[in-house]
Amino acid sequence: MRRETAGRFLLCFLAALYFLAMLLSGGVNRFLSGQYTISAILHVGVPDDEGAGIAGKVAALPPVREAQYRDPEQAWAEFLAAYPGLGSLRGEGENPLPGYVEVRLRPGWMSDEGIAAVRSALEPVSQVEKILTGGDAMQSLLRMKRWANALLWSGFALVCAVFLAFLVMQEKARATRLLPEVSFLAGRGVPEGRIASMRTAGAVVAGSFVALLATGLAYAALLLAARHLPLVRVTVGSAEELLGTGSLLPACLFLLCAAMLQGLASLAGWRATFPKGR
Amino acid sequence: MIEAFRVGAVSRGRTLWEGVDLAAGKGELWVVTGPPSSGKTLLLHILRGERRPDSGDVVVDGESLYRGSPEHNRRFRALSGVVPELLPAEPGKTLEEMFLLSALALGGVTDEERKGRMGDLLSLVGLAGAESVEVSSLSVSERARAAFAVELFRNPRALFLDMFLAHAGREWADRMGALLRALAREEKTILMMERRLPDEWQAQKAPSPLSAGPFTLYRVGAAPRAPKEKGRERQSQSSPVSGTAEG
Fold this sequence. Notes:
heterodimer; A: 278 residues; four-stranded antiparallel beta sheet; rod-shaped; B: 247 residues; alpha/beta; Rossmann fold; five-stranded antiparallel beta sheet; 9 helices; 10 strands; 39% helix
């Protein structure tokens, strides 16, 4: 019994960890949104305060997580860092590079729609000379992102299926072990439906405890990992984000689903052992 | 009132018996005796509504257990108790757990009430303080008495006992017999399946064998009846409660 509960807990913990990580990361969305930027190149000579103003307005757009204005000097420094040895291009004259606004999207908006929304907001701005969104390469990147996400969610579905199969097998074995008790109760006029419903209710309550413990531990493990492992921070999110209501609500939903799943598995295992109207 | 009409059973393609009649009313104690493998346990299952007879019918309180509503059958099983020939003894299962199951079947029993009644009943069958004892560690006699106590916990209206006296042992047969007669006086219907009637019982009250074939039926220590019921009682005693063996 203890080994069974430990196995159930472990699988529930894995499913909870996977679910929370997927939900917070959006698959590869968060990682990509951290790497991908849209650059709005301003005309040469646009004042810094105007550039900062544009960045502020763009930052207010729903798809945008962060928009930062880089003045021409910062642009030149970045250029030199990327292409050392081209400092002679500036010569004694003025900085040939214009300032630009660097836009980072929210993980959930890492899509054609998100990019198009930012583009359409920036295009009418007269100070903007050019918008760099990645061009044609972006399309294949987004397609790959969709495939990667589908693969990751399939992995979650597989974990859930294994969890469910494990639960049903466990419940079937438990029901078989309970055969003498069931025969005793049925022989004394206790309706079969009542026995099944009592057992299902018990499984939901016990399942809630297991799920609560597993989800809590998965949450704590993610928090700890986000605090200490940069890779987790980049792919899943920061500890602060994990503590937000946006992740607490799905965690509660998972808890409820896991408890219900255990109740259903109990009923399925029961019905497999004691078919209705036998 | 439990009535069996021309009940017959077939087992492994062989007719065990047919045409068994029986009528057991409130406060009556019946003992059905028969040789080994004559189908006593099968008859008990049939009379209790657990196994449909291959011929005939069993009627309880005017409604058939098999042709009536399933709810009637279920209610009858809820109101009756059964002491099996051998109490199943899974490793680790204690007597207290058996009482817990009985309380669950009864429903609405508080923990305190359950513990109190469990203690009383175990004392009654000579197993005082055996609550935490594993069933598998009990002797055959102790198991039979424990199963009896577990059934009495639900205070059933009718009791079916399979080889109870034989398993309870000579030492306990008198005491258990007295207890059963006392239960019969409390208007309970008691049906027992035994290989033979204890000698002491025959010496105390000479029952007349009421049947032929594989079974012999005895009516023991009927409770005093009201005058208007006496006629029916006489009829019941004199009716041919018989069985015809075949094969």
